[in-house]
Amino acid sequence: MTEGGYERGQQEVGKAANPDINEAGPKNTTDDIGAIPGTQGGGSAAATAQRTAGGGRSEGRGDGRGGRGGRRKRRRAEEQMVPDATFTSYYGRPVVKAAPWEAAIPLYLFMGGIAGGSSLLAAGADLTGRPALRRGARIGATGAITISLAALVADLGRPERFLNMLRVFKPTSPMSVGTWILTAYGPGAVVAGAAEVAKLLPVRFGVLSTLLDWAARPAGLAAAAIAPGVASYTAVLLTNTSTPAWHDAHRELPFVFVGSAAAASGGLGMLLAPVHEAGPARLFAVAGAAAELAVEHRMERSMGLSAEVLHAGTPGRLMRASKALTAAGALGTLLVGRRSRVGAALSGLALLAGSACTRFGVFEAGPASVHDPKYTIVPQRERLNRRRAAEAAAGQPPTGEASPPAQET
Amino acid sequence: MTHGDPAHQGGGHARVDAGDGHLGLDQAFTSAGPAGPAAHAGWEAPPSRKGFFTDTSICIGCKACEVACKEWNGVPQDGIYELLGSSYDNTGALGANTWRHVEFIEQRTPMAGLDTGITIGVPETAVGPDVLVSEDILGSMARSVHDKPLVDLGMPAFDLPSASPDAGERTEFRWLMASNVCKHCTNAGCLDVCPTGALFRTEFGTVVVQDDICNGCGYCVAGCPFGVIDRRIGQKAPLVGHSDKPVTKNAGVAQKCTLCYDRLLDDLTPACAKACPTQSIQFGDVDELRERAEKRVADLQAAGVMGAQLYAEDPEGGVGGAGAFFLLLDEPEVYGFPPDPIVTTADLPRMWKHAGLAAAGLLAAAAAAFLGGRR
Hints:
Chain A: Belongs to the NrfD family. Chain A: Keywords: Cell membrane, Membrane, Transmembrane, Transmembrane helix. Chain A: This is Formate-dependent nitrite reductase membrane component NrfD. Chain A: InterPro entries: Electron_transfer_protein, NrfD-like. Chain A: Residues 1-81, 379-409 are annotated as: Disordered. The complex is a heterodimer of chains A (409) and B (375). Chain A has helices at residues 45-53, 68-74, 104-128, 131-154, 174-200, 207-239, 244-247, 253-272, 279-302, 313-336, 341-371, 374-393. Chain A is built from 12 helices and no strands. In chain A, helix 3 (104-128) runs antiparallel to helix 4, helix 3 crosses helix 6 and helix 8 (253-272) packs antiparallel against helix 11. Helices cover 61% and strands 0% of the residues of chain A. Chain A is an all-alpha fold. The N and C termini of chain A lie close together (10 Å). Chain B has helices at residues 37-40, 64-73, 135-147, 189-193, 219-223, 261-265, 271-275, 286-302, 348-373; strands at residues 50-55, 100-107, 174-181, 199-201, 207-209, 230-231, 254-255, 281-285, 309-311, 324-328. The interface between A and B is large, with 121 and 115 residues.
């Protein structure tokens, strides 16, 4: 079946039923193919429904959208990268639902990355005798994981039931796995961070301080052992959903996220530690930034149709900012990171900001790919058609569900 | 309850690849196995699996199911009587406050080689030979017939379908109506991703939220390949004391169709199926419903309804066959269904593998940074 095979059906919605709206009459039938519900990208359900119901309206409606020609021209340039897919939907409404998550979740993704990477840096600094880097990374990890947990709890529909997460362990639920990863990671990171904070305080707390000092290294190493999981599982958290732009990224997103974590935590290390100690942080940051940029580029190729949302609107702006900041930060690290404390700090800040933009950009791409049903329907329809074609080629009598006979041409 | 913790979906039961490329080893996480989902979830000697067969070819769009569902389950209203401009559907979609959703699809299916245009008039089939109509009405009808050509809107006729003058011919306009509902998948994405065990597999093989366990993490919302479940928005009950504002039941908690779990426990038919006046919604044992559905679709196809197809019924399909499946008269996406849904956890083993590789890479990068930094 060609692409035109699924032009049937829904595009006529609203016209016959709403003769008042359908001012232009039947002559618009063919004009409307480009305006099949959903092909214009996101928007609220109400707006989409309105667009659909008014599918027949034409020039002179003064609704800000203009006629068909104007609408075409005003369409965002990015969306024209991929030719319009013609498809059918139910009044342009989303097929799947976006997770009801708000800014707390991308903030958590960002902070989780900082925590994971920083614990690794802290352990390395601890073992190689870099006290300033160790202090900055341990305190950074502790602060980041604390903000992470607060964000996670705040985003629940019933925050007071947070501990219900610990009722079960489910490998099929990345959120459950992640909860246990954080539960295992948190204490070590917090003890190591507390030991550093205690050293900064003017007073000592006797036995408690001694105990903290003694526990700091094992706690920090334990946290570091789990830290890679903290930094990488969040990718699976997003990709194990029916959200097209997230699921389609499942091959590369873990690598993008650990790259982003390395860049951010390396950047934080450069910000907090003097230049002569921050060598490993610089290497870590540059390697992370390079991996993030390279794999993100590859991800956009392998995602298919839903990669479009990474170029449009808010996620598009965030991803562009992420690339620019990450590249600038990495370049600054290489050029001035070793020589200038200020240059290192600025590069570190750029890397941190770039990582934040990556997390928010990838996160925002999810809802954007849900709001336009195109990203759900078109790839699935193509997959189904391919399978039917393969079945037909194999001469199998198609079975039940997979066998609607060819429709009218 | 006697069941083991429903959380444990993992384990054996890898299914044989059906040649579709997406089944087989990847499904090991979620497949329910031959004994059915309830047994797989740990129920000992569960009753037969229960489900719905929604035959949309006889749905009249009366919305009795929507109303019955709301009344029985105490589901709050969704909005404030908005008009969505989408035919007679002002509900919009399934969600936390809509567990049955009646869709109205208005279609003009072009007839080959004919362009009659659209004119709204009294359909020829609206008045049958045996119906007495006053002279006035007949006169006005005659005038309108004279003025413009008539088009069958698909309105129900008073006479038998075969008695109408153009029986057997397709008119160029039709209504499709369908009552959508949670599919109660064999491989349920919502259930797989739930981190609290609030979603569980009942002894009837259905998937139900435990309202008092769910902490509203919202993961199931994104996990569902059909966009069924959602988190309920509303005024939450205060943790302590009383609230002056009216409190929404289960606000902040994921909500969806329970297949009337409470009614099933008392051997009652779910409210929507009970209320359906045309038996478009049929409730029963899934095995028996499957047979019925296959016969029905064969009958319809033999009668020339060529678009008739079963949806979400195939046990080899991407969700392992749903407990609630449908007979559709057109492609799934026309009804707002995903054309080829696959439970998201089907890819999860591969995702964990990639995450593991990434984690190892991060560890290696950190080690290399310190070794390299020692120069």
